[in-house]
Predict the structure.
Amino acid sequence: MAIKRQDGSPQPGISWGKFTTRIPGIHVTFSLPEIIQGGLLTTATGGVVAALTMRYFQVPFEVAWAVVLIQLFWLWVIPTVVCGEPYAPGWITPALPLVMTFLAGFEAGLPAIHAMMAVTVCVSAIFLFFALTGLGKRFFQWVPIELRAAIIFGGSIAAFNAEFGRMADMPVTLPIVWAVVFLLMFSVWFTRARQKSQILNLLGSMALLVGFLVAAVVGPLSGEIAFDIQWGLHIPQITAYVQAVSPFSVGWPGLDLYVKAFPLALMIYIFIFGDLVLGTTLLEDAGKKRPDETLTYDNTRSHVILFIRNMGHLLTAGPFIPLHGPIWTGVHVFLTERYKSGRRNMDSFFTGTFNWYWPAFILIFLVPVVTFMKPLLAVALSITLILTGFACAYIAISMVKTPAAQGYAFFVGMVIAKFGPAWGMAIGVGLYLLLLARKIPGISPEPEKA
């Protein structure tokens, strides 16, 4: 039985400086809905990393599968268990298309490995700079709420664009899965109905898994998914993987690659900023309905943890193509919605983030699980992205109230989704000064005194 939290206080743990270590079963309770869904979806999504590693680093599947185990340590153990970060940790998913485009400019194998090393070092250096100077926290505070809304709108539009394009591959399966997940998570009438039914409440608590299982039924019936289940155990070849991609095995990139990677790293940081904005906004919104727990957010601490995760992964096991980011947006959305439903369903927000990830440490060794998940990888990512788009949309809309601010947020969000973060931020700042700034020194008139 875990230590019980007093109402209104933080979840118990071992505090050390800005960080708090919490041990599952001692400081945080176990929760079956998160264990079942999280284990399956974390394993399925982790398989995407193996596929990316095979494609760009020219590593065979038997070796590439080791990255799924390695990433779990840096993805979950460090930020959630050791450091006590109050987010559902994930990749820098919105930046992944930019990273893949960058890597496509290099020959698969060693050149691409060196290119990804350069990106990782540059991104980590930016995290460290903002952490040491404290400018990360100030930067977050300086950005107007209208621009924050625009960044979140950009994420929503980009996510919807990506998923609507994916419908050509699964025109039957994906719409049905989206409808089921939306119904279980956001439907007004279903939310009321589940309060009176234990069965409906259980279905709502396991919305992502239900959507996943619906895909496993609809996909084969529509001919869009096929399974080839195999049996046995698979031991990840960690040593072979490290030898294939570690900088201490294959060497470090030259200075020219760091110069090429730095502009991309700046754009990636813009996505990180958006993720931190979204993650904090969702928790603040959930906190209004859950005064029984105090969740602490620290922008500087988040930057330190992101630096440790990315450089730690690089130094111990080579570059990580998706890069480590503050939140797994779809899961963070799902867990905050579960959290808002009350302490009876989720004792602490850490109950969700703890139980979502650890079962994957077991499942990745089971060949039947791996072969079942493989055809459903696209569905797992689709559920994550469509939830990201939906949540980003309603959060961004709620942040801006005036017609000018709403139009600004949507327009700049479209620019971000269409032309990228650099153009989006530049136009966002310029348009803010033209439309929404209340005073421009030397130009705008002083307000009249009463």
Notes: The longest strand covers residues 14-16. The mean pLDDT is 86. The two ends are 62 Å apart (CA to CA). The beta strands are 14-16, 19-21, 90-91, 324-325.
